[in-house]
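Weekly modeling sync, notes
Attendees: S.R. (lead), two postdocs, one rotation student

Agenda item 3: backlog of single-chain predictions. S.R. asked that every request posted to the team notebook include the full sequence so nobody has to chase files. The rotation student volunteered to paste the first one in as an example of the format we agreed on. Action items at the bottom.

Example entry:
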Amino acid sequence: MSKYNEIKAALLGAGTVGGGVYKLIEKRKSEMPSKVQAELTITKVLVKNLNKKREGIPDEVLTDDWQEILDDPKISIVIELMGGIEPARTYILEALKAGKNVVTANKDLLAEHGKELMDAAEEYHKDLYFEAAVGGGIPIIRPLKECLAGNNITEVMGIVNGTTNYILTKMTQEGMDFGEALKQAQELGFAEADPTADVEGLDAGRKMAILASIAFHSRVTFDDVEIKGISDITARDIKYAGEFGYVLKLLGVARNVNDKIEVSVSPVMIPEQHPLAKVNDSFNAVFVHGDAVDDAMFQGRGAGEFPTASAVVGDVIATARNMQYDCCGRIGCSCYKNLPMQPVGDSRHRYFLRFLVEDRTGILAGVAGVLGNNGVSISQVIQKPAVDGVAELVVITDKVETRHLQDALVIFGEMSMIREVASVIRVYSQK
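Predicted structure, as returned to the notebook:
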């Protein structure tokens, strides 16, 4: 008989990540007594179809009955990897109420119902860990909550979607257009058959809502995040970014500006010497600025069976350790402030503007005049030779309140000399 207690866990979902979690815990089973002073076993795995074979998971632990898990007092940790809002939300709330600790990777649920879940965990004095909800295998949630707790964090910025980073890398390095790069990403398994959540920035938006809430100690939901995807980005935009010394990435940017929070996900041109500019392919990275630590960056695999399982199992081990020392619930919700969101129009950014214009004199003066009349000053400009009577004018502005730029864009839409405002892309600059 073992001298160690046995901690039993249940796994909800046996997909790619769920399978990876089961395999990883089994692989580390002999080390668990040394790591947590207890044996750790997944005794139940909830699935929809009992007849489907799951590689590496024995048939005898499979169940399609949630109540069987909920009513088992010996199961003390529930690992939710089903995804989606329901029934995951209900299961997590029921598990916490039943006295079970919860580990989840469910970014969708946390971004919309994080407060409800954290309140329930606090009420029942249980752990609710979710490291894998942002950045796959990258440790970022617990560093923000614990390791960097002595800082006033003013900015969290990152590449938090591997699909879009892969696509933009191929467009940058190999000159592919968006459609070609997306198709390759789908063929390699980096993009879903329906890539909307990735390429339109929705996935990254949910992750940034979670990061901003933790970093600034104030609740941010998915609806608070300004979102723009990469489906309109062209190879020409990327080429011109390079001419100006920038690299184009889909960035999540969260800032605390004078105790107002602004959170966005959008294509951003960042200086080619910035550390994030060198994060390529399906890798993720999160860049944090604090008043004590200054700058810190966390980089690694942002998705996949074992990178994500790494984060999940780390949370399970942390929970098991807390159970051994009777200190579950010690790291709860950190949203003790109630800061307002900065109106989108009041946010200040630099912008890259690409115009298709008539090939005649006075065009640059006309564009500069409209921008100047709306409080937008020009930092850099390139005019390309005309083709078939249409020239290309590329402008980078100084920092401007977004509403002033939007006013100028309305006027450009009414000018006959402007055939098209082909691109409007943010350019990164420090606060």
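Discussion: group reviewed the output briefly. The first helix runs from residue 16 to 27.
Action items: rotation student to repeat for the remaining queue; S.R. to check formatting next week.
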